[in-house]
Each structure stands twice: as C-alpha cells, then as structure tokens.
Amino acid sequence: MPASNPSDTDFARLPLSPADLHNLAQLGYERMTPIQAASLPPALEGRDLIAQAETGSGKTAAFGLALLARLNPRFFGVQAMVLCPTRELADQVTTELRRLARAQDNIKTVTLCGGVPLRNQTASLEHGAHIVVGTPGRIMDHLDRGHLQLEGLRTLVLDEADRMLDMGFNDDIVKVARQCPADRQTLLFSATYPEGIAQLSKQFLRNPLTIKIEAKQDLRHITQQWYEVKEDDRLDAVVRLLRHHKPDSALAFCNTKQQCRDLLAVLRGHGFAALALYGELEQVERDQVLVRFANRSATVLVATDVAARGLDIARLAAVVTVEVTPDPEVHVHRIGRTGRAGEKGLALNLASMDEMGRVGRIELLQGQPTKWDKLDALTDDGQPPALPPMATLQILGGRKEKIRAGDVLGALTGEAGFTREQIGKIDVNEFSTYVAVQRQLAHDAVRRLNAGRIKGKSVKVRLLED
Ligand code: AMP
Q1: Are 228 and 201 in a shared domain?
Q2: Atom of ligand 1 nearest to the CA of 36
Q3: Is the CB of residue 78 below 6 angstroms from any atom belonging to ligand 1?
C-alpha cells in the first residue's frame, strides 16, 4: 500500500450521495478505517473482493456501504444478502446496516437465523425485504421452502468466512451461492485464509481483488513472559501460572478443541471457575459462555483462536498462550487482547522445545528478544483459587417476551429488595435474559425472582452452574 495521505481516508472521495456522507458524519465516522479505505473504492466499482479483516476493523461498513450503493429502494425484492456464522454477528451486522441506511428511503433489512420459528421470518420476507442477513442453514431452509427469491440479488457477502467453514457451513454456502444470479458482486471477508477459503473463492468469485491490511498493535503496555515447558507438563504449567500470577480474568489460547477440553477439565479439577469456547458448540452454549465470562461469573476462558474472534472483553488481566500458534500475527493478536484502553496487560506464554521455531518468528515480528522465566521459580501459596465476584442467573424469557434490561433491574431492586450495586451486567437475548449478581446473593436472587414477577408475569429463573 502506498503511504497514506490524509485525504485518502476521507469518505468524501467516494462516490456516495451527500445524504450518505452527512449520515456518516452524524454517526461520527470521520475517516475511513484502513480496511474501508482499501476496499470501498473497488467495491463501489463493482469488483469482487477477498478482504482480510476482523471485528473492530470497520468491515461491516466496508461491505455495507458497497451493498447499499447498489440497492434500488423502489424494487421490493432481496438485492443483497450477508451470510454470517452466528446469530450474534448477524444481529450486529443488521444493526450496523440499519444505521448506514438511515439516509436512504425505507430500506428493509431482515435477519434470518436459526433457533426462532420460521413463521415470523416468512411474514417479514412477504412484506418485502431489500437486504437479508443470516446464517447459512436458516437461509437454506427459506430457499428450500420457496420463501426467498434471489433472482434480483446484486450483492452477496460472506462475512467471517473462515469461521463459517470452521462451523461446518461449507455445503450450505455452496448451495446458497449457486442460487444467486451469476452477474452479482461477491464480497468475501475472512480473518484467516485456510484452504477452504481459496476453494470457495475459486468457485464463486470473479477475478477478485485481494485486500490485506497489516494490523499494527501497540504492545507496550503488555508484560510478556515465556516459560519453557515439557509436553507432558503443559496443562499443569497453566495451573501453576494462574496460581502464581492470580489474574482476575484470563483468556487461555489452545490450538485445538481437544486441548481446550483437556485444559478445561484440569482447571476445574484444581478449583478454577473456568469455561471453554470452541467451534461446534451449540449457539445457546456459546452465548452463555460469552455472557458469563464477560460479566465476571468465570475467571478463566479457554478458547481456540477462531472461537474467540469477536470476543470483546474490556478488562482482561492476562492472556495465556497454552500452545504457540504457527502464525506469528495470530500470536500478536492473542496477546493484544490484554492491556487495552491504557491498562497494563500480562501475556504468559508456554513453549516446548518443538515450538522454538515459532517463538523465533514471533521474536522477528515483534522486533524484540523473548524474555524467559523458569516455571520452577513460580510460587504457590496453597490457597484455593479465588472465586469470580459474580454469578449468572438465566431468566427464561427474552426479547421475544419483550423483556428489557430495565424490567429485570426493576424487579431485582424493587420487589426483591436488592441494591443496584449488587447487580452486574444484564444481557437480554432472544429467548433468555442473563443477569449477573454478586455471587453470595445468587441463590437468594433466584428464589426471590422465581417468587416475584417481571412485567406483571411470573418467570422461571435458574442459576447457571457447571
Ligand atoms: P466492525 O468491524 O464492522 O464490527 O466495526 C467496528 C465498530 O466501528 C462499529 O461499532 C462501527 O460502527 C464502527 N465504525 C465503522 N467504521 C467506522 C469509521 N470509519 N469511523 C468510526 N467508527 C467506525
């Protein structure tokens, strides 16, 4: 990429309407992010793209502005479709598209994800939708039933394509793409390039332009320590690191889901409040793990790189590299999750002799020597690990039942008699609401909510435990 000149990142250089430019300014989007500056000009010309971008890079607006530019608001048929790996991401994409489309007349966006009855989605489609955002399986269902017509489709977006492949959506993506008109534009966004992505792009993209942005992270706030470990001692070494450093919250990266499962068992065996996140978890399980870690009901989250993508934890005390990743950029991305927003971070890294080549590549990429410490020098005070400060209650009922966070807070602080300070984060999902409460009050809160009412109705509440 040529050296960037400030005007290169000005939205005004794009062929967008004054109303769109005004809307971007109102949203507070002053300059294009690197992925937007690289992908919007060719995308607005109609080129197919393979773009490397992660959540947080502004990728949604990169494909969103491109697909909106090709819409005809007066034609009430599906003209753009975004395939996403999860419902969470589909919801985020829909929200962002609606924001971006505010300046245009009456653009309808429908989200189609599994886990909800088809009926309501079918009704929304019948009312005429310009844009469909959803997971491949559910979109396939609607296509099979003849609810969804794609002959007017102009733009197909594959968002987080690597993660969709990881979750076993390859066949559905292929089937959906085959039903789209041949002269459409295809935009593929992916954080990594496994072999499956090359296959997909060969099959479905026409003369695509590849866009890769080098992410530069500031790692100066992060203390990085390395420990040499024997293969057989690896999981116990994680326990020793956590017992010595005692981080309030830690994200431990493994390279495989089997390693995640094994580490989870070892950590729980030692009394840690640990959870794990890896591909192939059911959506509901995934939602619960994310909610519980983010609201401080667990101290350790064990995850693979792909599964942890999009996980955004504001204050993460430590990252643990359980196994070294072959890609040095992935390593930098792993440790960049701690020490955010000006806080200090701690990266604890284990490496076996067989992984020293990988460590060398990380050293080269960071341009600084690796600092080694000895596992034998770690201390252990013999105390059990600290429990997390919060616990999570699941209320059976969510957005579908029109429950809002305020209703739950009202029930807990009103009738049930708790104070605002005793209640943590409240997440309202489609069918469930998750509320964090101080751990020692959890059983009491379950009892009182079960006995009381939310929005005038009695509810079922349970404590999430392992
Ligand atoms: P994404 O990577 O698409 O998930 O976007 C990350 C966040 O950045 C979202 O909250 C967007 O609303 C926001 N965003 C996207 N583009 C810009 C921009 N050019 N300037 C400021 N914020 C942006």
Answers
A1: no
A2: 19
A3: no
For residue 59, give the ligand 1 atom closest to its CA. Answer: 3
**Which residue puts its alpha carbon closest to atom 16 of ligand 1?**
58
Count of domains for the chain: 3
* 217 in a structural domain: no
**Pocket lining: 59 vs ligand 1, CB cutoff 6 Å:** yes
CA-nearest residue for atom 13, ligand 1, is 58
Residue 355, Cβ density class (10 Å: 0-12 exposed, 13-18 middle, ≥19 buried): buried
Q: Which atom of ligand 1 is nearest to the CA of 56?
A: 2
Closest approach atom of ligand 1 to CA 96? 12
**CA–CA separation, 195 and 203 (whole Å):** 13
Domain final residue, candidates 193, 212, 231: 212
Q: Which of 275, 311, 287 is nearest to 428 (CA)?
A: 287
How far away, in angstroms, is 61 Cα from ligand 1 center?
Answer: 7
Q: What is the mean pLDDT of each run of 10 residues along the chain (466 residues)?
A: 60 94 92 93 97 85 97 94 93 95 92 91 94 96 95 97 84 93 96 82 93 72 94 97 96 95 97 92 87 94 85 84 93 87 87 94 87 94 94 92 86 86 88 94 94 87 92
CA of 390 to the centre of ligand 1 (A): 31
Cα 351 versus chain centre, distance:
27
| Domain edge (last residue) among 310, 344, 377 | 377
Instruction: Give 58 Cα–ligand 1 centroid separation in angstroms.
Output: 4
Strands 49-52 and 209-212: parallel
Inter-axis angle of helices 136-144 and 118-126, to 10 degrees? 70
